[in-house]
Design brief:
The protein has 702 residues and is an alpha+beta fold. 43% of the residues lie in helices and 24% in strands. It contains 18 helices and 31 strands. Strands 6, 7, 8, 9, 10 and 11 form a 6-stranded antiparallel sheet that branches. A hairpin with a 5-residue loop joins strand 9 and strand 10.
Amino acid sequence: MVNLKVKFRICATKIFRVVKFFLAVSIFILIAAQFIQTQKALNSFGFLKSDDSSLIKEIGQVRESYSKIGADLNEVRDFLRMPKSNYSGFNESSDAKDVEQNQNDVQLALFKYIDYLGNQKVRDQKIAANESALSELVKVESFNKFLAGIGLKAQFSVDQSSASLKISDEQNGTLITYYLSKEDGKFFRKTPNSKKEVDYRDHLVLDKDLQGFLSSSKMELIAAAQTLAAKKDEVTKAIKSKSAQDILTKLKMKLEDKFVDKDLMITYSIYNKTEELIGEIVLNATDLSISLVDKNTDGINLVVNDPISALPPFLEKLQSKTFIEKKADRVMQDLEKTLGDSGFKLLLSQVGLKISEQPRVNGDRLFFDISDANGKILNSLVIEKTTGVINIVDMNGTNAQNLLYFQPEDKKKTLEIPKNIPDYSSSTFGEKEDFNVLIAGDHSGLVDTMIFMHIDEKNREIKMISIPRDLFYNGRKINAFAQSYGMPELKKVLSEMTGYELDKYVKIDMYAFIEVIDLVGGVDVHLDQPVIDPTYRVVDNGKEGTLRYEPGDYHLGGKEALRLARSRHTSSDFARAERQQKIIESLQTKAQNFGFGDLDTIYQIAKTVLSKTDTDIGLDEAIAFYFKYQNYKIVSNDVMSSGNVLHVPPYITQENCDQQMALAAASGEADPGCANQNHAYTLLPLNNDWNVIKWFFKEKFE
């Protein structure tokens, strides 16, 4: 009897383990399926990233869900005694590795390097030989006498990227060009209507071949050059004709008689008002055909015999609207179609609501008001013509929410607010007369400086707050908005985040920064703390050294001011932001000394800045703002930091995580579990409460 009970218990235990195992496998499959669906959704969002700023918030939310599902999946894998996987990547994939794959990184790198050196040596020898053939040929007296005898001349030119030899006459221009690229070593002989790759390692061989070619083909080359020049004149006359110019002016398009000559295709580009390429006039130097190409419509490539008469109607039919304008048109068409739909009208009738058939126009917004049976406006559907997005807004036009991603259950969620911080929600602050400008510093396409400048016109004061680039908002660092979606989106996000509407933005690169400071004669800056940056190597008077500034007063030129503004190795981003504000304050002090007598200098500064910036401020506006605000007083410089309203959430770098995992594997210890943790240094508001940001700005600006 006892043995029977023992056997029963053993059997029951095994059954329980089997059931438990299959239950875990089922959970694993369900989570995996959910993970795969999420992965597909994320990949489908990828192509929309650069097109629609309205998806930013939604993609950020999906990214967070993605990571959580990955963590759950790893827990089940651990229970099933399966190795964990890294699900922390976003839109990443990993290929299975061949078991025989060479893992010797040093060996692979050395093979790659030696192969590169060998190919580079061959290429360099070829380039040197062909360049020598060109340069030596023009020194040969007999060759120059030959050219002079047939009315031609040679011109050799060389720079870091290429070398060329042109044979031309005074009347018909260049007849033959020998062009050598130092980047890839390719060497071509080009005539008005042909192009051929050649290779001459000896100038004597080149001399013989070229003299023979010219002796037999000179008249043909002249005829080809004259015919091609006549065709270019046809295109130029068509472009400059009154009918074409009238259409270009009306449609705000740009078409000049300047062209790009590449691979025997002479191309004249047509742009819309935002410099988007919408069309081309292409002259084929080989067969002398002229084509009108519509870059927005596939397959539209018209070969024309008379460009003067064909160009105006072609320009009329070109889609001159910008990408955003076309997107806004599509949204408008979809909305109008829905408003006229019989089923939608029935729904409105059932719920007792009405939507205005014609929109209210307010600047760049079209409002379709939603009202109840008594005519009271509840909300509005707003088409943002500047972005092509359709939002739901409340009665005063605020609290925008993307219509395409509206979720009723989201409205039920409440935000936990600290007792001493009010719930500002989507409140906006500031007086009507206030003026807010975002000053952003650009370095190699990345925004690494953001200063929110608040101009109080009532009190004639200027206040500044620096925003750290590592502030983590909506699934990404704040400076990533400019890189991925453009400055208008960054301006919009910061307006929402701070509660203060940004009116204008200026993204200035470091070269413009240098020129502006040099134009005003430098700036005076006082440093309370030393600045020493061993990773920032500088060269002064031909001598290399470490960036180093002791405490004290400095008069800095453009280059020195940029060094001081960008250095951050031995100081924090917050200390760097304070120095940047000091430089801006010094610039403003300089500006106060300029008057109408310095208008030429002011104009030159404005022109320099605007030519090297991404901004929505025009030249006339910039000069008007200067005279309006030059005597306003900068009364405060503040920096959002981990010392006031921000904190650094726990994180581990990917490098440290990889080291921990390698050590654990080598010693036979358990996986440290860091693969799905945060691998980037970021900043968040205290208690993860974004109302703290608005509170901070309100406290500083009012």
